[in-house]
Write a structure and sequence with these properties.
Radius of gyration of chain B: 23 Å
Helix content of chain A: 55-70%
CATH topology of the largest domain in chain B: Rossmann fold
Number of helices of chain A: 18
Oligomer: heterodimer
Number of domains of chain B: 3
Strand order of the largest sheet of chain A: 1-3-2
Structural class of chain B: alpha/beta
Distance between the termini of chain B: 13 Å
Radius of gyration of chain A: 23 Å
CATH superfamily of the largest domain in chain B: Response regulator
Largest sheet of chain B: 7 strands, mixed
CATH architecture of the largest domain in chain B: 3-Layer(aba) Sandwich
Distance between the termini of chain A: 22 Å
Number of strands of chain A: 3
Shape of chain A: globular
Shape of chain B: globular
Structural class of chain A: mainly alpha
Strand order of the largest sheet of chain B: 7-6-8-9-10-16-17
Largest interface: A-B, 57 and 78 residues
Helix content of chain B: 25-40%
Largest sheet of chain A: 3 strands, antiparallel
CATH class of the largest domain in chain B: Alpha Beta
Chain lengths: 456, 432
């Protein structure tokens, strides 16, 4: 008898399925359609003016302070690595696992979407690097070939995505400690060989990711505190190379597959009974292949969308006014970043609410000796908010709102970026039609992911 | 059979024991919390490897299995530990993954030097882990409900002394259903092994009661809309027996309620699919009046035993089966008692076997195999049990509750005999 009685208990998913999610999906898509129509009617000058930030006070953060913070960050990393290596093996009690996945991967990425680039100071490498090599360091011993572009970052980030999504035990404290310290060393050696600036800006995916996410935050701190519409600072970036454009797309691709892999639809595709999920080990390769295929597919679809848009817009333009496919592809890839952040939020929201409690308890008792340094009154993690229809509805609305809002911001950014490429409004609008359809369909996909039954 | 430990006194052995004892007393005196264990031959903790579903699909259950286990171990330690030694839990996450489960078992045996392994819920993880436990000769106490132990598919080292298996549960439901709800049953179940097992076991059990399954409706596992299947329910149906699982289970019951309106047949299901769901939540009114199997009644009943009250207090669960810290955080009350009771069986087994260390693992298994009746007590708050040493499986009472205003009210408690079935294996004939 293969009875697996608890195999697929009714979690918040069961309550989500009682909600009229079809209507919510329709409403979400309608909001994105409305934003597309609205922005089409808006003059480009007004749109670009809206993205001008409010300039506030001048701030100064000496390099020494940044490096000091970086050294502190590295010290904390090494200290909690000891907890990872020698502390409790329970990943939900171990401060290291919780710090890496809940505080850093989920929390800090989201914080960048609001507060701007914190990683510039918080990264655990630059402080030590400058301490060892000084500020006027000699040229690095090796030169990273130009052809490498950002491709190393693309590969490393896909590897990270595979570890998170397909590995059977990414939370295991001892294993995770090995991976994290190994990656720390890999990056530091890369910096020593090719120079900190080159390695971090072209090969280290998290530095790039945090910089891109920070670019769509309303805030920028240096050299002057400026606040504006989310995404305003994207307009101050230079045109990304193709490899960086692909990196932008895989940010969304990895996040999308992370959601898709749990759906009944995907599990049925790979021949897994969603009510009898066999464990991540059993689907390691389908997961890795699915991750790579979805990312490759997303890049191809996005390229096709841009190709059709530029071709249609260019048809009526003089040769000098035409915009090349590569130019449009690279610029418009930046408009995908808000969606990637919106998906990150929606996908991890419940995870963060639950494991955030574990993280807080672990911070209060890092050595699991029964301490309560933070004086917490609650001693147990609760998931009560996932067990009533009303609270699950609120959670769903918050997730759906993040998906829809991120698409609306993307629409605005895409239109602003396109308006800078084309001289005429007509060309701008024509070039945007395929991308607008893509955005609406992706909104549908994102909301469907939230509503569809999941089997793992 | 319990064998008495052989004791050989040699001069060197006595000196070693004295030295170890002195060291142990010095060590424990430095740890005030452990001073109560200082009288033991060795105060080194008994290490229980806790294979827990912390991540993966079993995580919601794992959280409550963890809470119950921690509470049970605290109680055991507060009472002086096992054989005078404190119990230490070594928790490892198996990711609710069979392959990972086997790795965790290996870690318990070879890295953490655990005395035993304990705690697994999901059947496929038990299947994946038990062979490794057998190879490593590590006693493996599962809390899984699966029939895998009693079916003879596992080994001498795997035991399930704290929770009844599904075969027994299903069989025990038939008399009540037949006598009180109706004899003509339509079964609705997911179309895979889990559903097929329910179909086969319940069909046989209800026929033995003079009842009849008038229709068996198998639903594809990926289905999320059920109304189209309901016209297949024969008019003569008196009871609908459903074992739907998965995220669509509430949709299923809701659509069933809408299909029949107020004139529905009796509806009976297993609480597994609604474990940890707050039935009092607005929007779940359609569950009212339906019956559920419960392993342990979620709501404290009018005749609640002092043992259930003490158990709830220790785990931190209120009279509605929810966390004392959050009235909406409903526990997996029907299942998690199994952790509590299994740990108490382990304690009793180790005490009977005078367990001192891994060399006594066989004696521990023999001591548990020799167990039989276990009365309702603080050690067994769910109810009395009867352990079958040959099949390594325990049998107990089951509860059939009716949802009334969002509360599960027990209508019937089955006898232990209702769930007994002929032995399918005799593990005691297998060598260690």
């Amino acid at each position: 008898m293969q009875a697996q009685p608890a195999q697929a208990h009714a979690s918040e998913q069961a309550l989500v399925l009682l909600l009229p999610t079809d209507l919510y999906i329709l409403a979400g898509c309608a909001a994105v359609v409305a934003s597309i129509l609205g922005v089409a009617l808006l003059s480009e000058a007004r749109l670009l003016a809206a993205f001008k930030p409010l300039s506030l006070m001048r701030l100064k953060l000496p390099g020494s302070v940044t490096h000091m913070i970086s050294i502190m960050s590295m010290t904390v990393l090494f200290a909690i690595s000891a907890i990872g290596a020698f502390g409790t093996h329970d990943p939900l009690n171990n401060l290291f696992s919780l710090t890496i996945w809940t505080i850093w991967w989920v929390g800090l990425v989201l914080a960048h979407g609001i507060l701007g680039n914190l990683w510039h100071a918080l990264n655990p490498w630059t402080g030590l690097y400058h301490m060892l090599l000084g500020y006027q360091s000699a040229p690095p011993p090796l030169k990273l070939p130009r052809a490498c572009g950002h491709w190393i970052a693309v590969l490393v980030f896909l590897g990270f995505g595979a570890f998170e999504i397909a590995d059977p035990a990414p939370d295991d404290p001892v294993r995770l400690t090995k991976f994290v310290l190994g990656y720390w060393l890999f990056t530091f050696v890369g910096m020593m060989l090719f120079g900190a600036r080159i390695w971090l800006s072209r090969c280290e995916p998290f530095t790039i990711l945090f910089r891109l996410i920070a670019a769509i935050s309303p805030m920028r701190w240096l050299p002057r505190l400026r606040i504006g519409l989310p995404g305003w600072s994207i307009f101050s970036l230079s045109k990304p190379p193709v490899s960086l454009a692909v990196f932008c797309l895989i940010l969304l691709g990895v996040g999308s597959f992370d959601g898709l892999k749990e759906s009944f639809w995907w599990l049925a595709k790979i021949g897994v009974n969603p009510l009898m999920f066999p464990g991540k080990s059993a689907i390691f390769w389908p997961s890795v292949i699915g991750l790579l295929a979805l990312n490759a597919g997303l890049v191809c679809v996005f390229a096709a969308v841009i190709y059709v848009g530029t071709r249609a817009a260019n048809a009526a333009l003089a040769p000098n006014d035409r915009v090349g496919f590569t130019t449009a592809f690279c610029w418009l890839s930046l408009s995908i970043i808000p969606i990637a952040l919106g998906y990150h939020f929606a996908h991890f929201f419940i995870y963060f609410l639950v494991n955030g409690q574990n993280a807080l308890l672990a911070l209060s008792d890092p050595l699991t000796h029964g301490a309560n340094y933070l004086g917490l009154t609650k001693t147990q993690v609760t998931t009560g908010f996932l067990k009533t229809k009303d609270s699950v509805q609120v959670v769903f609305f918050i997730q759906a709102a993040a998906v829809v809002a991120s698409h609306v911001v993307s629409v605005l950014i895409a239109h602003g970026l396109t308006a800078r490429l084309y001289q005429s409004k007509r060309a701008t609008l024509i070039s945007q039609i395929p991308l607008a359809i893509f955005m609406i369909l992706y909104t549908f996909f994102g909301l469907w992911l939230l509503a569809t039954p999941r089997g793992m | 059979m319990v064998t008495k430990p052989e004791t050989k006194f040699t001069r060197r052995g006595v000196l070693k024991t004295l030295a170890a004892g002195t060291g142990a007393i010095v060590a424990t005196s430095a740890l005030p919390g452990l001073s109560g264990f200082a009288q033991a031959q060795s105060s080194a903790p008994i290490k229980i490897g806790f294979q827990v579903h912390r991540t993966g699909i079993g995580a919601a259950y794992g959280r409550w299995y963890n809470r119950t286990t921690v509470a049970a171990v605290k109680r055991i330690n507060d009472m002086g530990g096992i054989n005078g030694r404190p119990v230490e839990l070594v928790a490892e996450d198996d990711g609710t993954d069979p392959k990972r489960g086997a790795e965790v078992i290996e870690k318990f045996a070879t890295q953490h030097n655990c005395d035993i392994a304990f705690g697994t819920l999901f059947s496929h993880v038990v299947y994946g882990s038990a062979p490794r436990a057998g190879e490593l000769k590590l006693p493996y106490f599962v809390v899984s409900e699966g029939h895998h132990v009693a079916s003879g598919k596992l080994n001498r080292y795997t035991l399930q002394p704290g929770i009844t298996d599904v075969k027994s549960q299903v069989q025990a439901m038939a008399p009540f259903i037949s006598n009180n709800l109706g004899k003509k049953v339509t079964m609705i179940f997911p179309d895979f092994a889990f559903g097929h097992d329910h179909r086969d076991f319940f069909t046989a059990a209800i026929e033995a009661q003079g009842g009849q399954v008038v229709e068996s409706i198998a639903i594809p596992p990926t289905e999320t809309s059920f109304s189209k299947y309901f016209p297949r329910i024969p008019r003569e149906t008196e009871v609908i027996y459903h074992v739907m699982v998965g995220p669509a289970v509430l949709t299923f019951v809701k659509e069933l309620g809408e299909f029949f309106g107020p004139n529905s047949p009796e509806i009976f299901g297993f609480i597994d699919s609604l474990e940890a769901v707050d039935l009092n939540s607005p929007g779940l009114e359609f569950l009212d009046g339906t019956y559920f199997w419960e392993g342990n009644p979620r709501h404290a009943q009018a005749d609640q035993s002092s043992h259930d009250a003490a158990y709830r207090a220790a785990v931190g669960v209120d009279d509605s089966g929810a966390s004392l810290e959050d009235a909406q955080d409903v526990s997996t009350y029907s299942h998690m008692f199994g952790c509590w009771e299994t740990l108490n069986v382990i304690k009793r087994g180790m005490e009977t076997a005078n367990y001192q260390g891994p060399a006594d693992r066989q004696k521990l298994i023999e001591a548990v195999e020799a167990m039989s009746d276990m009365p309702l007590s603080d050690d067994h708050p769910q109810g009395a049990k009867r352990f079958n040493g040959k099949t390594h499986q325990t049998f107990g009472h089951q509860y059939i509750s009716k949802v009334s205003d969002g509360k599960l009210v027990v209508e019937h408690t089955t006898s232990i005999e209702d769930g007994l079935y002929p032995d399918e294996v005799d593990y005691t004939t297998q060598s260690f």
